[in-house]
Amino acid sequence: MKGKRIIGWMLLLLVPLSILAQQKTRSGLEPQRFQETIDGKETALYTLVNDNGAEACITNYGARLVSLVMPNWNGRMEDVVLGYDNVTDYHTQGQNFGATVGRYVGRIIGPSFSLDGQRYDLQDSGKGVISHGGKPGFQDRVWDVVKVSAKTLVLRYVSPDGENGFPGELTVTLTYTLGDNNALGVDFEATTTKPTVLNLTNHSFFNISGDLARSIESQHLWIDSKEFAEYDANKNVTGKFRKVLNTPMDFRKPRQIGLRINKDYDQLKVTGGYDHCFKLRHAGNINRPAAIVYDTQSGRTLSVYTTEPAIQIYTGNGLRGNQVGKEGVRYPRRSAICLETMHFPNSPNLSQFPSTVLRPGETYKSRTLFLFSTDPPQMFKE
């Protein structure tokens, strides 16, 4: 009996040591700083690691990608997404770093829409629009953890009927997968109890240089797009498409992001840089890249593949250096690029845009892959 007690005490002493050994992730995050209770639900940090040593850290608060560690040209592992090192800052700072945005990313004007003869008035985020699904949105909710393994995390959120004005109880399942090819997969599935509209995305702020305080303006961008959605002076889509030809919006050949970002062009003046929804030439084709970013300094290439019809390119124009992120880094203006795969803003009110309607008995599915490599496509070498 005495021997069993001694063994028991020894095991208890060993538990804290094993916890200490796992206190930090490869990105330097401390999981215990993500253990809180928000709206009566527990939050945590989950770590995925592939066979190459790449790592993705995700919190179930807002189903957010907190860090993503990928190799540079000589194998050095560095974090390539902006974010905070604790869940409290995500909860209080009101920034969409790494978040899952919903029910509807972008703006719906009115804020309202009609479906099957029924008008739905939505929460007003200000100036007659609802933005990013309103407050609180999916990015502000604690998601349930369905499954976690070495390379996969499955999360779920059930949005109640009428949340922020949207009809139908919506059940959303999100699967993060870190592949051994250094691709982070983001897969959504959703069902509804009533006809509704839905537009989901991952809102990660990427800086593939690995230096999260460095401007992304020197990085090169290619977009598989001939047209983008036009804004009015209030940054609301007009329903018209503009051709990128002979404009600063033309990335059909790789160009430095900052080369024409400050040009005297009305669409850039509205947003203070790039923050536009590009219509993809090969919409729905997961086997063709929608956009590619290349950083000559680190040698990293990020290729985005998606089943969505559009991609919102945002160049961190609203960052001001007043937000302190991981490792105490202040994020200055244009220190990140967002590559938000999605449908177009205000689609429920614009029949010329692809439909975002989801009905009972249907399953919404959306897939996006963020593929990293250090071997850029030939177009970037020419």
What does this protein look like?
There is one protein chain. With 382 residues, this protein is mainly β. It has a nine-stranded antiparallel β-sheet, with no helix packed on it. A six-stranded antiparallel β-sheet has the order 18-27-26-23-20-21. It has a four-stranded antiparallel β-sheet with strand order 3-4-5-6, with no helix packed on it. The protein is globular and about 60 Å long.
Summarize the structure.
It is built from four helices and 29 strands. It is mainly β.
For this entry, give a set of tags.
single chain, 382 residues, mainly beta, 9-stranded antiparallel beta sheet, 6-stranded antiparallel beta sheet, 4 helices, 29 strands, globular, disordered N terminus
Tally of alpha and pi helices: 4
Stretches where pLDDT is under 50 for at least 5 consecutive residues are 1-22
For the termini, the CA-CA separation is 75 Å
Widest sheet: strand ordering? 12-13-14-15-29-25-24-19-22
Largest sheet: 9 strands, antiparallel
> Would you tell me the structural class of the helices and strands?
mainly beta
Percentage of residues in strands: 35-45%
